[in-house]
């Protein structure tokens, strides 16, 4: 077997065995879908959020694993929060009240660059 032929075979095998990494970030539709059950709580609720809301918050928490995901989720939350009046104290405490660690509160004033 020639050296050239061996190199070609190794190169082809390498192409198929190289892991594929996705550069895409979480979509705004996923963020909205996860947080939709929280809207009525954030706008007119009190006390603890409903379990359906917390399930969405925890789902979003699990889906935002990279810095790019977190920034994309933040930008989406911020744009939606601009069109809805939420109670700031509920928005700020949402993640902790749901035992999640989202790096952003659900408000229109959050800084997504930090």
Characterization of the model:
There is one protein chain. With 114 residues, this protein is mainly alpha-helical. Helices cover 59% and strands 0% of the residues. It contains 6 helices and no strands. The longest helix is centred in the first third of the chain and has 15 residues, at 3-17. The chain is globular, with a radius of gyration of 21 Å. Mean pLDDT is 79; it is low at 2-22.
Concise overview:
The chain is mostly helical and 114 residues long. The protein contains six helices and no strands.
Q: Helical proportion?
A: 55-70%
Q: Major beta sheet, specifics?
A: none
Low-confidence stretches: 2-22
- What kind of oligomer do you see? single chain
Mean pLDDT: 79
Beta-strand share of residues: under 5%
> What structural category arises from helix and sheet content?
mainly alpha
GO molecular function, one term: lipid binding
Keywords: Lipid-binding, Signal, Transport
Pfam family, one: Tryp_alpha_amyl
Signal peptide: 1-22
């Amino acid at each position: 077997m020639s050296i050239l032929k061996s190199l070609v075979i190794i190169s082809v095998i390498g192409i198929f065995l190289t892991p594929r990494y996705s550069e895409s970030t979480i979509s705004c539709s996923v963020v909205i879908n996860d947080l939709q059950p929280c809207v009525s709580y954030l706008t007119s609720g009190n006390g603890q959020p409903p379990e359906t809301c917390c399930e969405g918050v925890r789902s979003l928490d699990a889906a935002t694993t990279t810095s790019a995901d977190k920034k994309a989720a933040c930008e989406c939350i911020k744009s939606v929060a601009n069109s809805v009046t939420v109670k700031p104290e509920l928005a700020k405490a949402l993640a902790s009240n749901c035992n999640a660690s989202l790096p952003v509160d659900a408000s229109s004033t959050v800084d997504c660059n930090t």
